[in-house]
Amino acid sequence: MAPGAEPSVEPPLGPDPTLMAAAAMVFVADPAAPVLTQGDAHHLFDVLRLRPGESVVAGDGSGSWCPCLVAPGTDGRRWRQMDLSDLLVPDGPVVRHPRAEPTVTVAFAPTKGDRPEWVVQKLTELGVDRIVPLRTARSVVRWEGERGRRAVDKLARVAREAAAQCRRTWLPELGGVTTLDQLASAVGPELVLARPGGGPPTLGRTVVAVGPEGGWDPGEETRFAPGLGLGLGPTVLRADTAAVAAGTLLCGLRAGLIGPLA
Length: 262
Known about the structure:
By secondary structure, this protein is α/β, with parallel strands linked by helices. 30% of the residues lie in helices and 19% in strands.
């Protein structure tokens, strides 16, 4: 892209054929002059075994992306002798997708094992804009201090990989471990707690908090869910399933795939 030039803008009206047809997607600082990391180069050429001329999308994670081609000379392991800035060649103008509105946030209380990674992967695929690990009164898993920072860093890597896999041009924001008090202070009346018997989703409240396996503490419900809250169906869902269900409902409502109740 020429200095001072503005990228063309395409509204996100369904899947973009160029994004969908690409063999892979990577995230770089400048889509117009893509510089791969060693890790991304390894994935493209050692794992996926892409060949010269195959299509790769380079995005910046903030809505801008550029169609690229694998450069000549990258067969096999020869890419290791090349500069990381020479592995992809832009094959068109930089395109910019605006962020979907309104912003959808899902805060969830992490459970044991690798289930938090699964939750973040699926919320990223669905299009959730902000994902927040939540510390609640009944949380069993408590990410604090250095352990919490490492866990969030790992979730950020999961989100990045999932965004590339699903051809998402906006990376989700992954917040640090947050309490309900902190979340409520930051978003105000947009916050709604997921709870059995709650009401239907609405785009007027697009910050949903999902509690831990033991459910919300009565004090939390009294302070942060004076109304019905958000219902996720007639059954009791696992905590991780509930987080994905909440993201599905809100993103589907925003995209017009489901309609609000009359």
